[in-house]
């Protein structure tokens, strides 16, 4: 074929594709209004690229700016339902017109899976499903699927200062993404994960049926609590169990640098933190910072550039955590269990539980809890990975990790270690799909900032850097395990078109779920055999 006929063919293919895409797009919108019980109200919650608000609605809940560039595929249509019947209509029409669907809650997905994919798709943005109803006498709450943790925590605090939900730490995270992947927070060592504290759920399945725990059955109810709900249906709401917390709790922070015995402290932390009483949780944030080698002055992790020629890079170890009790008791506990850290009362702050939620979302204890209702937050483009560590990393290997970190400039990266043990190891590996229980010392999370464009050479370097760090720690992690809520497409993806084999999907499925992956595949094969609810790492149904 000569160049001119090749170009003609290419042009024809592109034109045909755009006609088809605009056709299916039009048919899809027509379907939404035609089959909605209330065509007027659904037309008010549909946004096409022609709509002036389309961009702002799309970007409102994008928390990883790596997926906010012009190169990121955009939805044909965004629907922000306000009624359950509108969700049913979207499912019906997406199936009828063979359009993929992405479901978004808080929008924190690490790989942008809730709002971007290559194939033509509709974005179902559940942000208006955000009502919370707390029954403080029964210590339960119903929370709609599009609510954020901040909205849930705020509503609980309005009713009681001694009840809480063991959810995540950052208030803009959506309840559904969090719960449906497990969801750890400051109460994990006392009460387990968010998903361990769910009593009921309402969802819409691939046939448009609204099901609750009783009608969906225990298999599906098991799968959506940690197995990733977006493989199984659209969650409408969760009934969660609230747990007891003291009226006054303690938050604390202690900073040490490499020069202040940092490596030995981290080495000890690995075995001490998972064995503390359940009331205490001690995490570690590790950042690259500048320090002045002449006067020893240190900068913050937010200072990207050196100020003087005497500045050199070092690491700052932030020991941060909380205790369900008074500061005095916590200081005594630390003196007994971890005297080397030298925690004193001045490192601690006694607050109410809701004030602690504010502090860990980077507000101040005195700030109004209404700040927790704000759904937008500080965002950057990034790539992250996670592993579960089940044997202490020796000093030499820790030093190797430090060398790796020090190759990056301050602000570009961080490493976060979250201690396990306590209630986390009492719950069986198969109770819910999240399997990383007994034997896990801590979860390691690593992040690198990118430029937000895959074509930028700096991004290729950042990707290479994080992949090699992940490989470097692999010998100390349980079979390169990973946390679903820090999803990572490097582990593998489903075929874009056509089925994916069990073996192929095991590459990521077994890392997230271990043996529970098999049960998830069985549940998927029963409840969604045609694989309507799919994304790059969704659970594939077994092939007949
Ligand atoms: C800044 C930040 C802080 C974090 N802190 C924590 C933490 O403390 N603890 C922790 O465990 N994790 C934490 N995470 C990870 C977080 O739990 C996951 O990213 C989680 O998936 C986010 O949920 P979301 O609803 O905000 O995200 P989304 O991107 O909206 O959704 C995530 C997944 O859930 C699916 N989903 C959303 N709504 C529905 C629905 N109604 N029905 C079916 N499927 C749905 C989406 O399709 C997608 O697959 C944090 C993430 C970030 C970015």
TrEMBL record:
Record flagged with keyword Metal-binding: no
Needed cofactors, names only, are: FAD
- Cite a single Pfam family from the UniProt record: FAD_binding_4
What are the entry keywords? Disulfide bond, FAD, Flavoprotein, Glycoprotein, Signal
Which molecular function GO terms apply here?
FAD binding; oxidoreductase activity
> Mind telling me which SUPFAM superfamilies this protein's record contains?
FAD-binding/transporter-associated domain-like
Sections of the chain in a coiled coil: none
Q: Which family does it belong to?
A: Belongs to the oxygen-dependent FAD-linked oxidoreductase family.
Q: What is this protein called?
A: Uncharacterized protein
- What is the source species? Daucus carota subsp. sativus (Carrot)
């Amino acid at each position: 074929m000569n160049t001119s006929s090749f170009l003609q063919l290419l042009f024809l293919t592109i034109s045909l594709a755009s006609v088809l895409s605009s056709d299916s797009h039009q048919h899809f919108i027509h379907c939404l209004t035609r089959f909605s019980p209330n065509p007027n109200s659904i037309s008010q919650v549909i946004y096409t690229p022609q709509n002036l608000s389309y961009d702002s609605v799309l970007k409102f809940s994008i928390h990883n700016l790596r997926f906010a560039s012009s190169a990121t595929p955009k939805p044909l249509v965004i629907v922000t339902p306000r009624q359950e019947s509108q969700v049913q209509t979207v499912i019906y029409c997406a199936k009828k017109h063979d359009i993929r669907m992405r479901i978004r809650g808080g929008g924190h997905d690490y790989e942008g899976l809730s709002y971007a994919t290559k194939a033509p798709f509709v974005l179902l943005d559940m942000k208006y499903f955000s009502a919370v109803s707390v029954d403080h006498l029964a210590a339960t709450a119903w929370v709609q699927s599009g609510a954020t943790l901040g909205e849930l925590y705020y509503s609980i605090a309005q009713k009681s200062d001694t009840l809480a939900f063991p959810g995540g730490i950052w208030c803009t995270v959506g309840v559904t993404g969090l719960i449906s992947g497990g969801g750890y927070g400051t109460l994990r060592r006392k009460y387990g994960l968010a998903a361990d504290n769910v009593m009921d759920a309402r969802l819409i399945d691939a046939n448009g049926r609204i099901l609750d725990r009783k009608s969906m059955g225990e298999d599906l109810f098991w799968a959506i609590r940690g197995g990733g709900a977006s493989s199984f249906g659209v969650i409408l709401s969760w009934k969660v169990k609230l747990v007891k917390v003291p009226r006054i709790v303690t938050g604390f922070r202690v900073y040490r640098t490499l020069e202040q015995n940092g490596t030995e402290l981290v080495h000890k932390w690995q075995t001490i933190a998972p064995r503390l009483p359940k009331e205490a949780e001690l995490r570690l944030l590790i950042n690259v910072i500048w320090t002045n080698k002449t006067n020893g002055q240190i900068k913050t992790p937010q200072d990207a550039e050196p100020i003087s020629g005497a500045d050199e890079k070092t690491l700052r170890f932030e020991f941060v955590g909380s205790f369900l009790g008074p500061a005095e008791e916590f200081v005594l506990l630390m003196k007994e269990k971890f005297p080397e850290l030298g925690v004193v009362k001045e490192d601690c702050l006694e607050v109410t539980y809701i004030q602690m939620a504010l502090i860990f979302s980077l507000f101040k204890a005195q700030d109004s809890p209404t700040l927790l209702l704000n759904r937008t937050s500080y965002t950057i483009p990034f790539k992250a990975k996670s592993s579960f560590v089940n044997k202490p990393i020796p000093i030499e290997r820790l030093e190797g990790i430090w060398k790796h970190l020090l190759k990056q400039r301050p602000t570009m990266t961080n490493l976060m270690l979250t201690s396990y043990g306590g209630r986390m190891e009492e719950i069986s590996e198969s109770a819910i799909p999240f399997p990383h229980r007994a034997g896990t010392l801590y979860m390691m999370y690593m992040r690198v900032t990118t430029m937000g464009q895959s074509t930028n050479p700096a991004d290729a370097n950042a990707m290479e850097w994080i992949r090699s760090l992940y490989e470097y720690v692999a010998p100390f992690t349980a079979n390169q395990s990973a946390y679903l809520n820090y999803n990572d497409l490097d582990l593998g993806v489903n075929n874009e078109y056509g089925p994916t084999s069990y073996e192929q999907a095991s590459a990521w499925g077994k890392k997230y779920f271990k043996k529970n992956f098999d049960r998830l595949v069985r549940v998927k094969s029963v409840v969604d055999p045609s694989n309507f609810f799919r994304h790059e790492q969704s659970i594939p149904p077994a092939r007949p």
